[in-house]
Structures are given as structure tokens and as C-alpha cells.
Amino acid sequence: IDSEKMMAVALYLAAGFVPQTPLAPAMRSRVISSSAPEMSLSSRRTVVNSALVSLGAVALAPLAASADVKEVPPSTNRMGGALDAYSDIQKGWSIYKPSTWNKFDANPGEYDAKWQDVVGFTEQLIVSSSPVSEGKTIDSLGTPEELGKKVSGLRKMDLKSAEAIKIGGVLTYIVELSGEGGSELLSFAVAKGKLWRVTAKAADSRWAKNKDMYRNIILSFQPRIL
After folding, report:
1. pLDDT, average across residues 61-72
2. Global pTM?
3. Fewer CB atoms < 10 Å away: N or C end of the chain?
4. 124 to 25, 85, 98, 176, 226: CA distances (angstroms)
């Protein structure tokens, strides 16, 4: 089972989120189908914990309430022309993306948009979203540290940092991971009835040089048109 898809499904179920597309048979055996009767929080967490443990992840910790966090406006820094503003008018989101990277069209159920560098093919920017149940918030996934541990386990990478920050008023969790051959910076936010995930990843040879650019990209994302 693809670890990225399983991570998405596990996180969605952890907060009562609904996967965007039907699950493959192998994955369906580990999670609850969206057509099944609604389960209690404790039952749902038991199922998700089983899926996470099967991938070597930690079990879900108790849900945490939101705390006061630093708030910043969406970044509009073009990093000396390295970034260009981009908006998806149909789905209603905006981001600053690398100006020279190739863009890939949406792949429903996996990502809404993807960019990749044109030289070494070692850097990627991915934006993805999935519907959430009414009333769910990012807090449903626990604290930033708890979410970071879950994601690092699913990705089989080391957790370097985890933080909460409000970007343009949207509570966002930012997690940094490192592993064999590369690193990733991921953000998670719930807005407009969707869980939004932005991932910037690169090989070690590019990470140190462009880490500030990846963070700037993360801080530029908004689930609305700017």
C-alpha cells in the first residue's frame, strides 16, 4: 500500500474526515468505508490506531484543544523572483510556487496540483485536499507534535520540528521531516470543509540551499483566492 495514500486515509479517519475517492481493496480492509454507519470517536480511533501501528506509526494521542499561536499574514515574498503567485480559481486556493518548475495537472484523490524542478527532478511541491465532516478542525488531529509523530511514522522519517501558526487567520500545523536521502516540510489546515495539505520535498543536495524558499511557500498558501 502506498504510504502517502495510507497517511492521508489514516489522518482523515482520525478526525472523522472522508476520503475523496474509493479505497483500493487492500486499503479498504484496514479502514472504514465512507458508506458505513457513523462510528463513535473511540471506535474510529481504534481502527485508525490499527492502521497506523501496521505502518510502524505511534498510536493516536488524546485530542488537544487549540492554544494561542502566532499569527502572520500570508507571505507574498517572491524570493528575488524565484516564486510566482498562483491561484486555482475553480477550487479556491492560492500559493506562491517556483517560477521555473514544471506543473502537473490534478490527479483526483492524490493531489490538486504538483510542481517539480526541471533540472535534477529532486524537488517537488504538492497541494492536496479532501472533504471533512462538518464542524471538524485541525485540532481533531491532536497537537502539532502528535500529528508530527504520526506523519513521521507513516513516512518512516525522523521528526525534526512541529509548530502551530495562524496564516491569514487559518490555524495551520507545520511539520518538518528528514530521512534517508531527503527532507520534507508539510502543512495541514482545515478550511472551507476540506483538509488541505501542502508538501515541499527535496533531496539532501537541495534541501539546505532552498529550505527558506520551501518555508516561504508553505507560509504563502491560503485556502482562498488572494
Report:
1. 62
2. 0.74
3. C
4. 29, 17, 10, 15, 23
